[in-house]
Amino acid sequence: MVTLVLPRLVDVSAASRRSASVTERNVAALRSVYWLLLVSGFVEPLLYLLSIGVGVGALIGDLTLPSGAVVTYAAFVAPAMLASSAMTGALAETTFNFFGKMKYMKLYDGVIATPVQPFEIALGELAWAMLRGSAYSAAFLVVMVVMDLTAPARALAAFPAAVLVGFAFGALGMAIATFMRSWQDFDLMSSMQFVLFLFSGTFVPAEAYPAVLRWLVEVTPLYRAVHLIRALTVDTGGWSWTLDVLYLLAVLAAGLLIASRRMGRLLYK
């Protein structure tokens, strides 16, 4: 029994170290200008919150959620901005940057000459993306607490959820990037990302849409992310958010599996 289990534990430990080395490479390669990009990723959803959540919210007034909870429009929009921020940060790292490293910099061609495997590269890049996404999420939750849009305890509960959202979109983005042929392909992805941003229960409840469109909205990953974080920060709708967690975990697993397999085919061909 020991001889069977011990090698597996050693393999897992070694794989974790190799994945961490990929993350460490990204940290070491940072330049001072890069931090400006990190700041921009936080400022954009904050501006949406202030302009639409607070500005337009003054004209709309309060909203009644499906659970019966009554919240201000700013409190309704804020969780959606948090989910969108986590999505944007994760996708930026695992699509554009990941594609550039693989297709043009040929970075991973050198990495696979070491014991690091494609799946470990994917894990390392995903962990790096989550450092960026977690920074966005933590900063935005502080803003929500300061603006009295959620309670500190709820913000603490929402942080792991935001990290899960980033992981799910990071894995999904990495899988998508392995199918990209050129930079022009990202125009389509950016358009789809913007559609998700607008129609995922972000600014209006999904119940406001016609039945067919509502069904389409509710099966999108960003809607599940928004629904999860909104339930944890402002809603009292019971345990319906557990479905969101399972959905995002499934997206995370599928994205990692597809990304690692596609990377193996592209790098070893």
Automatic annotation (TrEMBL):
GO terms for biological process: response to antibiotic. It is a multi-pass membrane protein. The keyword Transport applies. The chain crosses the membrane at residues 33-61, 73-99, 133-151, 157-180, 192-217, 237-259. The keyword rRNA-binding does not apply. Residues 36-266 form the ABC transmembrane type-2 domain. GO terms for molecular function: ABC-type transporter activity. Keywords: Antibiotic resistance, Cell membrane, Membrane, Transmembrane, Transmembrane helix, Transport. GO terms for cellular component: ATP-binding cassette (ABC) transporter complex. InterPro entries: ABC2_TM, ABC2_TM_bact-type, ABC_2_transport, Nod_factor_ABC_transporter. Pfam families: ABC2_membrane. It comes from the Bacteria. It is found in: Cell membrane; Membrane. PANTHER family: NODULATION PROTEIN J. Belongs to the ABC-2 integral membrane protein family. This is Transport permease protein. It comes from Micromonospora sediminimaris. The lineage of its organism: Bacteria, Bacillati, Actinomycetota, Actinomycetes, Micromonosporales.
